[in-house]
Amino acid sequence: MIVIVDERELVTEGYNSLFDREGVASAGFAPSEFDAWVSSAPADDLKSVRAFLIGDCREGAVSPRQIRDRTGAPVIALSEHNSLENTLRLFESGVDDVVRKPVHIREILARISAIRRRANEDSTYTEIGSMRIFMDGRDPEIEGQPMPLPRRERRILEYLASNRGRRVTKTQVFNAIYGIFDEEVEENVVESHISKLRKKLRERLGHDPIDSKRFLGYRLIA
């Protein structure tokens, strides 16, 4: 999930729409709402955040260092002012990157992946058995051949791969794929997506690579 913070509701709604087209969950906050949320959100909710985008906010209203105290997710400033002084000020505040607007959503996602990769939290792809699972939106490959997947199933597979070796709950998968504030979609939709994904993987691999245990969650195995 991507979290966008901006004074203007029209801006946060616009980014939410654009990320949704890419199959990426997002949530928008006004600075006053964000401060209260990030300081009190449960750790599991923060783990579902892939990055924070800080847009037009009153100076001092959002503290990147406060975010860093609670999560290691990248913090990217979206700047509308093309000046060296403003860029240096943003970096000094603790952000990981400064992006000049306008910027394409795919460039933002690429920058997020690059930051996480440098922090050894992410890589271009993960190989599990004969599967190569990309983290940049490309379809996975099995034995070198692409396996087209609907975006939600692809994102679930990416999330399972990024948590290789760990078991994740249905709630964690839902939060990562749909966002923690999506009240229009039932959490049980995850079971439907994973059932379809398992069937496709079983047909291509000859076995089921998703290990599931009731009440404990899912884990991707070789």
Describe how the helices and strands are arranged.
Layout: E1 2-5, H1 9-21, E2 26-29, H2 31-40, H3 43-47, E3 51-54, H4 64-70, E4 75-79, H5 84-92, E5 97-100, H6 105-118, E6 125-128, E7 131-134, E8 141-142, E9 145-146, H7 151-162, H8 170-178, H9 189-205, E10 210-213, E11 217-220
Parallel strand pairs: 1-2, 1-3, 3-4, 4-5
Antiparallel strand pairs: 6-7, 7-8, 8-9, 10-11
Helix pairs in contact: 7-9
InterPro entries: CheY-like_superfamily, OmpR/PhoB-type_DNA-bd, Sig_transdc_resp-reg_C-effctor, Sig_transdc_resp-reg_receiver, WalR-like, WH-like_DNA-bd_sf
DNA-binding region: 123-222
Domain OmpR/PhoB-type: 123-222
What is the mean predicted local confidence, pLDDT?
A: 89
Write out the CATH superfamily name of the largest domain.
Answer: Response regulator
Supply the number of structural domains: 2
H/E series, N to C? EHEHHEHEHEHEEEEHHHEE
Q: Output the radius of gyration.
A: 18 Å
Provide the helix percentage.
Answer: 40-55%
Structural class: alpha/beta
Per DSSP, the total helix count is 9
For the biggest sheet, the summary is:
5 strands, parallel
User: In CATH terms, what is the architecture of the largest domain?
Assistant: 3-Layer(aba) Sandwich
> Strand order across the biggest sheet?
2-1-3-4-5
CATH topology of the largest domain: Rossmann fold
The number of E-state strands comes to: 11
Give the overall silhouette: globular
Which percent band covers the strand fraction?
A: 15-25%
